[in-house]
Amino acid sequence: MKLAFSTLGVPGLPIPEVVRLAATHGYHGVELRAHPEEPLALTSTAPERAA
């Protein structure tokens, strides 16, 4: 079974840090919480999502 790490537990943490944290602890994927106060939001533009 593969496990994914959710960003609900680390609010505001930059996405590269989330990926490093998840990989360090053996997770196989990351579930990104989309919210206006997070690095990724439903209103994010394509350049913002690419960053």
Give an overview in words:
This protein is α+β, with helices and mostly antiparallel strands and 51 residues long. It has a domain of 34 residues. 29% of the residues lie in helices and 12% in strands. The protein is built from two helices and two strands; from the N terminus they run E-H-E-H. It has a two-stranded parallel sheet with strand order 1-2. Helix 1 links the parallel strand 1 and strand 2. The longest helix has 10 residues. It is elongated and about 35 Å long. It starts with a strand and ends with a helix. The mean pLDDT is 88.
* Mean residue pLDDT: 88
Tertiary shape: elongated
Low-pLDDT parts are none
Order of helices and strands: EHEH
Strand content: 5-15%
- Number of helices, counting only DSSP H or I runs of 4 residues or more: 2
Radius of gyration, CA atoms, in whole angstroms: 11 Å
* Most strands sheet: 2 strands, parallel
Helix proportion: 25-40%
Question: Key terms for this structure?
Answer:
51 residues, two-stranded parallel ribbon
Quick structural summary:
This protein is of the alpha+beta class and 51 residues long. It is 29% helix and 12% strand.
SSE map:
Blueprint: E1 4-6, H1 15-24, E2 29-31, H2 46-50
Parallel strand pairs: 1-2
